[in-house]
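Exercise 7b. Backbone tokens:
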């Protein structure tokens, strides 16, 4: 086995192109948008600027890094994708400009793997072209999202159609999506509790689909919708995957999608650390700059070590996905660690900036508000810890050692 962390010249080139594009085109546009008050800015001009950037990204081949070339993508593996996502997410809009943003990115993977040819033609093509948006509707206000076996939204068969009723919330992108992947209970008495749900593709807007509101969150009202589903009819050909396979499909979707979040969070944490160091080099107090204070150095050192750990975990989990090995524990560990590391690093960066960090004059406050959801969405911390512990205990029972449960690394 060879361990080599260097990039091939071809990948160095791609990474350089993504970095130049983000720094040269996307970040300046983002700064212009941030400077203006969005309420008062001409919204069409703002959207026009972002769409022009998307078109440019597509024309220079920085488009769909996660998709195969036959779908217009860059055909990268997960390790390579980590590098591109970590560059793209140095800008808030970067992943969107490259068309690798959540939840469309995860939905593209899902359609590619589970969709029929007709479904791919009808739904995947538009997502890849960047002409449509999608959402994934699983979570419900009435039951714990952590346990999808509790899902109450149900679907019953009526001739060639399925009739869906239920209540969903926190459905990202639903406000602008042209279709939703809806997970509903179809089986009353399944052999396994995990075999009760089925996924359906629903064109939206449609009769029976009501967007109640975009939920106001701690980072504003930014496109996470509450949805009421009442006697919504879909043809049986809209079933995605098999009957009873909704849970499996959700798990399949979430593995790589969780890691893609981590790749973007790495970029955000690195931005925060850069800002922390930059500020510490220019702020002067009690006879020296902050960078010379031991208390500040500890924050910098802890952040650097944690960022390094996070990068290694993400790269290794990505390597396991690419190698076709079981990656569940590594992705769980990476997701848990990186989500918490992100929150800690941004918090320290705010601390070093003092009142400025608390203001909205820097991106830190905005990043902090966004980062909080990372600890429970796509699997709460405690759920990942529960699964990691279960696998570690099982590994010990099977092999008399926990070694294989800690990444199965050669040390
Ligand atoms: C910004 C944002 C975007 C989202 N986008 C989507 C989307 O597009 N589509 C979608 O379907 N959902 C989406 N969600 C929902 C998200 O997936 C859920 O919040 C998540 O699955 C947790 O479910 P819950 O909120 O119902 O929390 P619950 O399941 O009620 O859990 C609450 C807390 O209880 C604890 N807990 C729960 N179970 C256990 C356990 N077994 N052991 C120990 N502790 C436990 C954990 O601390 C957990 O944080 C989004 C959420 C946010 C915040």
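Sequence design result:
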């Amino acid at each position: 086995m060879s361990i080599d962390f260097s990039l091939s010249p071809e990948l160095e080139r791609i990474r350089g192109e993504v970095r130049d594009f983000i720094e040269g085109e996307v970040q300046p546009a983002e700064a212009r948008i941030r400077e203006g008050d969005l309420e008062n800015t001409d919204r069409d001009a703002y959207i026009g600027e972002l769409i022009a950037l998307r078109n440019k990204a597509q024309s220079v081949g920085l488009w769909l890094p996660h998709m195969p070339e036959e779908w217009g993508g860059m055909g990268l593996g997960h390790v390579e994708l980590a590098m591109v996502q970590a560059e793209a997410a140095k800008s808030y809009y970067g992943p969107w400009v490259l068309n690798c943003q959540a939840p469309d990115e995860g939905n593209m993977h899902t359609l590619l793997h589970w969709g029929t040819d007709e479904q791919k033609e009808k739904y995947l093509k538009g997502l890849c072209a960047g002409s449509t948006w999608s959402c994934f509707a699983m979570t419900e206000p009435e039951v714990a999202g952590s346990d999808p076996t509790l899902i109450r939204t149900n679907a019953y068969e009526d001739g060639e159609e399925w009739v869906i009723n239920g209540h969903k919330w926190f459905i990202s992108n639903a406000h602008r999506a042209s279709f939703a992947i809806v997970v509903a209970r179809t089986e009353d008495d399944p052999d396994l509790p995990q075999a009760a749900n089925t996924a359906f593709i629903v064109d939206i807007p449609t009769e029976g689909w009501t967007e109640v509101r975009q939920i106001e969150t701690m980072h504003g009202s930014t496109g996470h919708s509450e949805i009421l589903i009442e006697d919504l009819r879909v043809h049986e050909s809209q079933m995605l995957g098999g009957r009873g396979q909704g849970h499996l499909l959700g798990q399949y979707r979430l593995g790589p999608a969780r890691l893609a979040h981590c790749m973007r969070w790495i970029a955000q944490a690195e931005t925060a650390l850069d800002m922390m160091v930059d500020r510490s080099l220019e702020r002067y107090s009690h006879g020296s700059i902050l960078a010379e204070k031991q208390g500040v150095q500890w924050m910098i050192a802890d952040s650097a070590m944690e960022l390094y750990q996070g990068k290694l975990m993400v790269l290794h989990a990505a390597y396991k996905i690419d190698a076709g090995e079981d990656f569940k524990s590594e992705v769980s560990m990476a997701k848990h660690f990186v989500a918490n590391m992100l929150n800690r690093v941004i918090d320290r960066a705010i601390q070093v900036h003092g009142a400025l960090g608390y203001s909205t004059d820097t991106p830190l406050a905005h990043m902090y508000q966004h980062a909080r959801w990372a600890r429970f969405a796509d699997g709460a911390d405690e759920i990942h810890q529960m699964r990691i512990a279960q696998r570690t205990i099982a590994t010990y029972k099977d092999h008399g050692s926990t070694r294989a449960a800690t990444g199965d690394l050669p040390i």
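Instructor comment: The longest strand covers residues 161-172. The radius of gyration is 22 Å.
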